[in-house]
């Protein structure tokens, strides 16, 4: 019997409602009903009885629930045991900027702790990543956004991730104490691909304030964007982590541009029913600990 049926039966027993169980599991109510009927057919007894609007387990149902809970617990423990022995696989879904400039130190620590762990890093657009998390294709998702990406998924904000407007080190705007939106009039920008959420946010902001601007280059590679800026081909808006090293070395200038709408949160997204292996638990702990250390 599919373990999914056991989890569904456990949820119906807990919620005492087919409807609430379906909502919690993300299923259609008809799917929950079908699964319970198949279990009853398998065992040849009635497991749930109705009293008005209330549901309760029959005596056989109560006994079976105890066994199902033990089976599911043993299954989770077996996965944990195997993960400790051979490492297992951790699949992380994220965007290019985080994969290249944020995650590598954490992945190195994780590999040191779990040498046999297979780490798969999948980069994609935000919308595609959300779908993969919901479908279980990736274990965890990391992305930048300003609000909840999907109300069904469990969301944890790790930290605020600033966006910075970068320019060549000798750019005239770098000499100003404050760069305002009006100062960007007639500037040329190097932008990432059109699906990038912070690109669309920035362009909309400029258009709302009637700022005239030009897009000189549209590039999907973040290193290429930085190189073009260094060579005086335009300005660019990027997450600070992407340009931090070049700014500290003086190759790029971080313009003193601040706007309340130009900020994003680094978000961790998971399916609400995701089983947390030891490597996954440690990975989350590392991310949260690092964010707390930076905040101090």
Throw out a few tags for this protein:
296 residues, alpha/beta, seven-stranded mixed beta sheet, two-stranded antiparallel sheet, 47% helix
SSE layout:
Layout: H1 3-15, H2 18-25, H3 29-43, E1 48-51, E2 54-57, H4 59-86, E3 89-94, H5 96-101, H6 104-113, E4 118-123, H7 126-135, E5 140-145, E6 154-168, E7 187-191, H8 197-208, E8 213-218, H9 222-230, E9 236-239, H10 240-248, E10 252-254, E11 263-270, H11 278-295
Parallel strand pairs: 3-4, 3-5, 7-8
Antiparallel strand pairs: 1-2, 5-11, 6-9, 6-10, 6-11
Polypeptide structure, described:
The protein has 296 residues and is α/β, with parallel strands linked by helices. It is 47% helix and 23% strand. It is built from eleven helices and eleven strands. Strands 3, 4, 5, 6, 9, 10 and 11 form a seven-stranded mixed β-sheet that branches. A two-stranded antiparallel sheet has the order 1-2. Strand 7 (187-191), helix 8 (197-208) and strand 8 form a beta-alpha-beta unit.
Alpha-carbon Rg, integer = 25 Å
Helix proportion:
40-55%
Structural class: alpha/beta
Categorize the overall geometry: elongated
Q: How widely separated are the two ends?
A: 51 Å
How many distinct beta strands? 11
SS element count, helices: 11
Which regions contain 5 or more consecutive residues with pLDDT less than 50? none
Helix and strand sequence:
HHHEEHEHHEHEEEHEHEHEEH
Mean pLDDT: 89
Largest sheet: 7 strands, mixed
Report strand %: 15-25%
Question: In summary, what is this structure?
Answer:
Helix content is 47%, strand content 23%. It has 296 residues and is α/β, with parallel strands linked by helices.
């Amino acid at each position: 019997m599919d373990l999914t049926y056991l989890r569904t039966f456990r949820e119906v027993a807990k919620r005492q409602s087919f409807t609430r169980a379906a909502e919690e599991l993300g299923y259609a109510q008809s799917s929950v009903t079908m699964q319970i009927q198949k279990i009853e057919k398998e065992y040849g007894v009635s497991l749930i009885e109705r009293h008005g609007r209330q549901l309760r387990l029959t005596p056989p149902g109560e006994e079976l629930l105890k066994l199902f809970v033990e089976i599911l617990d043993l299954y989770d423990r077996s996965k944990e045991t195997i993960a400790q022995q051979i490492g297992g696989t951790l699949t992380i879904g994220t965007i290019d900027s985080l994969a290249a400039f944020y995650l590598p130190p954490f992945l190195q620590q994780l590999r040191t702790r779990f040498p046999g762990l297979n780490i798969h890093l999948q980069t994609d657009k935000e919308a595609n990543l959300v779908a993969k998390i919901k479908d279980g294709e990736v274990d965890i998702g990391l992305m930048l956004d300003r609000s909840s990406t999907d109300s069904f998924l469990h969301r944890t904000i790790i930290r605020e991730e600033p966006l910075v407007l970068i320019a060549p080190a000798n750019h005239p705007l770098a000499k100003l104490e404050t760069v305002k939106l009006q100062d960007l009039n007639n500037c040329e920008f190097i932008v990432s691909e059109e699906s990038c959420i912070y690109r669309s946010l920035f362009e909309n902001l400029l258009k709302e304030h009637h700022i005239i601007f030009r897009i000189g280059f549209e590039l999907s590679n973040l290193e290429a964007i930085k190189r073009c800026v260094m060579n005086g081909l335009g300005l660019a808006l990027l997450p600070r982590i992407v340009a931090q090293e070049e700014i500290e070395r003086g190759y790029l200038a971080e313009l003193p541009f601040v706007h309340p709408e130009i900020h994003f949160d680094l978000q961790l997204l998971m399916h609400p029913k995701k089983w947390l292996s030891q490597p996954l638990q440690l990975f989350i702990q590392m991310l949260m600990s690092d964010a707390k250390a930076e905040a101090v």
